[in-house]
Amino acid sequence: MEIGPIWRAMLKNKAGFVLIALQIAVTMTIMVNAIGIMQERANNIGRPSGMDEANTFALSSTLFIEYEDDQRKALIDEDLTAIRAVPGVRNVVATNSFPLRQGGWSMGLQLEPGNQSTDSVGTAIYFVDEHGAETFDAKIIDGQNFAPNQVAWDNPEDNTWPAIGIITEALAEEMFPDETGSVVGKTVYINDNDPVNIIGIVDQLQAPWEGWTGVERSMLVPERRISSFQRYVIRTEPGYRDELMPQIEEMLAARNKDRLIRGLTTMEDVRKLAYLGDSAMIKILTFVVGLLTIITGLGIVGLASFNVSRRTRQIGIRRALGATKPAIVRYFMLENLIVSTIGLVIGGVLAVALNIAMVEAFALEPLSWYVIPAAMVGLWIVGQAAVAGPARRASNISPAIATRSS
Fold it and tell me: Which range has the worst mean pLDDT, 72-76, 157-161, 235-239?
């Protein structure tokens, strides 16, 4: 089947084919960029937090009766000792926050003392003791963990920070981009002038805010808070989490009647809540892409059906002159392939242009190289499938009936 006659026939009815080509181009543009956004959101959802999420849960203890500082310290120590004594508990830490919780503490770090400047690097702060790294499943890849005698209670009257810290590998790379060796032993400054000596590097520990550009930058600080509100993060042995959650909650509630135990949650639930917006966005874009694809397919079906009705006599004459059914089907399939190709090429150019604009405006990730070819192939298949029905109906037109048509 020669393309020339098909092309000349299409030029006699340009309006319908132009509209379908434009519809395909718009669908292609929106589809490609929607897929790019969905990929980025899915990658975010799948990012590891650095924790042993399957075996970790958290809860909080809030005193509703005023306690002296020494009483609070004693209660916290007793809670931690009691939790660690429960069979199946691997470790526990009292901390201000944990990855993906959506709330926490952040500070700026800099290499020189003085007021913070644009060169300071933001980091999430986790106040922990010597059990923090293991509870968080933060693997120390360089340096060492805190020693018990390096962990102190916070002093509200003293605004200085602990002199040591453990940072994530991502934070180390951000702070010392030109360093080729170990950064353990180097000093950074926090709170403008307080020096912090880096004693250890952990592989990964995300910040509490999943949408933050510095989500991989965190620092463990060896300090315990004396607040009447305490958050316990508990890591269990594999398979014990669901069994121990109500057990530990009831134990803590029974040990002291002057407080409320609440906020019991698993890390898996924390992750779902943190990425709820991303999950909703993926569902919405999937629906939009699917709807556009269906509408485009229906448009192709409508145009092909109209052409079959308009060319009934012409098709019948061709059948009478010896054209086979497969030849008629090929005619309409090739005609649609030409229109689809024109639309997809235009759509591909528009998709790239739109992606460049979105990358600059919203700091999105550029499209992966394979997205546009994959979308083209997908829409080609949709177009051919949509035209297949009308093409088969055209091939079934009887030569006798067609030649009697006015």
Answer: 157-161
Average pLDDT over residues 141-151: 96
Listed residues 215, 245, 271: the one ending a domain: 271
What amino acid occupies position 304? A
Q: Give the domain-ending residue among 271, 306, 338.
A: 271
**55 DSSP 8-state letter:** G
Reference 384, options 350, 352, 324, 344; nearest CA is 344
Q: How many helices (H) and strands (E) does the chain have?
A: 12, 12
Question: What pLDDT digit, counting tens, does each position of 177-229 carry?
Answer: 988 889 999 999 998 889 999 999 999 999 999 999 999 999 999 999 999 99
Provide the 10 A C-beta neighbour count for residue 117: 9
Beta strands in 129-186 (DSSP E): 140-143, 152-153, 164-168
Each as own residue / partner, the long-range contacts of residues 311-315 (CB below 8 Å, 24 or more positions apart, any chain) are 311/394, 312/397, 312/402, 312/405, 313/402, 313/403, 313/405, 313/406, 315/394, 315/397, 315/402
- Residue 141's contacts (CB-CB under 8 Å, 6 or more residues apart) are 169, 201, 202, 203
Rounded Cα distance between 306 and 287, Å, is 28
Q: How far apart are the first and last CA of the chain?
A: 27
Spatial contact of 6 and 334, defined as CB atoms under 8 Å apart: yes
Nearest to 171 by CA among 111, 114, 98: 111
Residues 339 and 203 in one domain: no
Residue among 148, 122, 139 nearest 207 (CA): 122
Instruction: Say how far apart CA 84 and CA 78 lie, in whole Å.
Output: 10
- Is the pLDDT reported for residue 118 higher than 80? no
Q: Which has the closest alpha carbon to 202: 114, 132, 280, 283?
A: 132
- The answer to whether the CB of 138 falls within 8 A of the CB of 49 is no
What domain range includes position 19? 3-46+276-403
CA–CA separation, 24 vs 344, rounded Å?
6
Token code pair at residue 269? 């639930």
